[in-house]
Amino acid sequence: MLNCLKYSHRDSSFHRIIRCGSKGDDCMKFTIVGKNIDVTPGLRAAVEEKIGKLEKYFTPDTQVNVTLNVDKERHKIEVTIPVKGKIIRAEQVSNDMYVSIDLVEEVIERQLKKYKSKLVDKQQAEASNFKKEYIETDYMDEEEIRIERMKKFEPKPMYPEDACVQMELLGHNFFVFVNADTDQVNVVYKRKGNTYGLIEPEI
């Protein structure tokens, strides 16, 4: 069924497989990475079969990056699909990786329908990653994105740890600041498990 193995590497914590889908070279290209989990043939086939259903939306050679991650009972899948000027991203967590794989495909398909007008630039449709059928189809559940409130403020220089403290004092889930180490605008945000994340621009 799957016949285009290009590269495989494996160690104790991660397993990377780069393949194309089930239709030879005329297909989406999958890069599958396992963290704390082996990418078994069964998991690989499940990813390519389930997410491969999205081929009806994308042109051949579209890159699909998949990360499978297991942390205790949390079986998480993250999928990113770079398209012209944007990145489609979705993740799902359950106590079974096969369930997570099923769920994430449904999330991406909903995104493609709901935000089609934001993803497709009809003036550059010929150079996009989307098939003509998707570009020409109207989806009734598409919603307009409305920004109802704007707030301006002058971010202050501080270190990421101090920004986390300030975020907690304000009761927010994220905080924008100027990193005192780099002089760049960064964002800290709250993660599950009482941990924090840091977003830095890549220039």
Structure characterization notes:
By secondary structure, this protein is α+β, with helices and mostly antiparallel strands. It folds into 2 domains: 7-136, Ribosome hibernation promotion factor-like (Double Stranded RNA Binding Domain, 2-Layer Sandwich), CATH 3.30.160.100; 157-199, 2-Layer Sandwich (SHC Adaptor Protein), CATH 3.30.505.50. It has 5 helices and 10 strands. It has helices at 41-51, 97-114, 116-119, 132-136, 160-170, and strands spanning 7-10, 14-20, 29-35, 63-71, 74-83, 86-94, 157-158, 174-179, 185-191, 195-199. A hairpin with a 3-residue loop joins strand 1 (7-10) and strand 2. Helix 1 runs parallel beside helix 2 (97-114). The protein starts with 6 loop residues before the first strand and ends with a strand. The relative contact order is 0.09. Residues 1-13 have low confidence and may be disordered.
For the record, the count of structural domains works out to 2
Query: In which order are the strands of the major sheet placed?
Result: 1-2-3-4-5-6
Number of helical elements: 5
Measured by DSSP, the beta-strand proportion falls in 25-35%
| CATH domain class of the largest domain | Alpha Beta
Structural class: alpha+beta
Number of DSSP strand runs: 10
The CATH architecture of the largest domain is 2-Layer Sandwich
Percent helix, as a range, is 10-25%
The CATH homologous superfamily of the largest domain is called Ribosome hibernation promotion factor-like
What's the gyration radius in Å? 20 Å
N/C terminus separation: 41 Å
Morphology: globular
**What's the pLDDT, averaged over the residues?**
80
State the low-pLDDT regions, or none: 1-13
N to C succession of SSEs: EEEHEEEHHHEHEEE
CATH topology of the largest domain: Double Stranded RNA Binding Domain
Please outline the major beta sheet.
6 strands, mixed
